[in-house]
Design brief:
With 144 residues, the protein is mainly alpha-helical. The chain is built from 5 helices and no strands.
Amino acid sequence: MVIYGVMVLGLCMFVGTSIGLGLGMMLHISGDIGGVGFAMLLLVFVTPWLKKKGWFPKASEDGIMFWNAMYIPVVIAMAATQNVAAALSGGLIAAIAGIASVFVCFALIRPLSAWAGAATSTFGEETEAAPASKPVSLAKVAKA
C-alpha cells in the first residue's frame, strides 16, 4: 500500500531529525545538524533492505515516489520563506538582490531547457523528441 511507503519515509525523517538534533546538542548548537541528510541516508539504505526481505511492494514505492516529487518544491518554498524574511530584515539591497535573482532565473529557464534538450513543452505536454542518432560500435571506432 502507498501509505506504507509514506510511513517508511516518515520514520526515516523522524529518526534522521532525532540524530541531527542529538548531534546539535552534543556540539552545543541549538539546531538540527544534518537531520534531513541522515533521513535520506536511512531511506537509501532501508528501502533496498526492505525490498530484499519482500516487505516493500511496488505500491509502497509509490508512496515514496509521491513525496520524492514533492520534496524539491516543498524545500524550495521553505527556503524561500526564510530568504524573504532575511532579505527584509537585511535591508533594501538584500531585497533588490533577491528580486533580481528571481528575474534572472525566470529568464534562464527557456535557454537552459533548450540547452538540456528537454522533450517537454513549458506546459508539461509531451512533444516529439528528436530522433536519436545510431550508436557507433567500438569496432568501427577502433578501425578509424
